[in-house]
Design goal:
- With 235 residues, this protein is α/β, with parallel strands linked by helices.
- The chain has nine helices and six strands.
- Strand 2, helix 6 and strand 3 form a beta-alpha-beta unit.
- The longest helix has 20 residues.
- The chain binds magnesium ion (MG).
- Magnesium ion binds next to loops.
């Protein structure tokens, strides 16, 4: 019988393994040129990208709190972006939004050491899963297109769990699905609230990967790492 601390490792996907920022920027840049947004009055691709990311944050926050639906999140963040360029065009916003959702999951940028660490953990017989706040179809496309889908036994999305991180219930759902106890599991993620605080509430140890934002006195991860390779120190 194994005496090691952890048997199952749960990973967050966006901003932890899959480089959301870079992939999103590439997608928006593609759209800017492909749909000729300059001709509609969007000044340049860099401004389009930064304005979109600003509004995306705000609308995701509203969606997480249950104030808006998934459909509203999807087109309104783009509609609000266009308004900043004085473009009032709901149909254009919906078209861009659809195109963005098509292109984004085809992007392949992963964080440094993602594949190396997943191979390392697989060789050491850790069972790996994802717990991600995202849409079922999109998240599956992302891991398939970036070539990491075969590493994960279970992919728990907030859509199939019916609840989002940081709620304890999605972690309990993940533990039940994996058939593992909380104290034999580790959650690796980049968001203090959603990943770390949520996992702690479910009794799961945590590795916090986000050197830009320090942990707080209220939320204390088990480990803090500056890059994914550091997981080797304790796994
Ligand atoms: Mg994340």
């Amino acid at each position: 019988m194994s005496t090691r601390r952890y048997e199952h490792i749960f990973f967050d996907l966006d901003h932890t393994l899959w480089d959301f920022e870079t992939n999103s920027k590439e997608s928006l840049k593609d759209i800017f040129f492909e749909m000729d947004l300059l001709s509609f009055g969007v000044t340049d691709s860099a401004s389009f990208i930064s304005v979109y990311h600003h509004h995306n944050e705000i609308f995701w926050d509203r969606f997480r709190k249950g104030y808006i639906t998934r459909d509203e999140l999807r087109w309104k963040r783009m509609w609000r972006t266009l308004l900043d360029f004085k473009i009032m065009d709901e149909s254009l916003a919906r078209k861009i939004s659809e195109r963005y959702l098509d292109i984004l999951p085809t992007k392949k940028n992963l964080f440094d050491d993602t594949v190396m660490i997943l191979e390392y953990l697989r060789e050491k017989n850790y069972v790996m899963h994802l717990i991600t706040n995202g849409f079922e179809k999109t998240q599956h496309l992302k891991i398939r297109n970036s070539g990491i889908d075969h590493f994960f036994t279970h992919v728990i999305t907030s859509e199939n769990a019916g609840i989002m991180k940081p709620h304890k219930a999605i972690f309990d759902f993940a533990l039940a699905k994996a058939g593992i106890l909380s104290h034999q599991s580790l959650m690796v993620g980049d968001t203090l609230d959603a990943d770390i605080s949520g996992a702690i509430s479910a009794g799961i140890d945590t590795a916090y990967f986000n050197p830009a934002v320090p942990a707080t006195a209220e939320i204390q991860p088990t480990y803090t790492i500056e890059n994914l390779a550091e997981l080797k120190k304790f796994l």
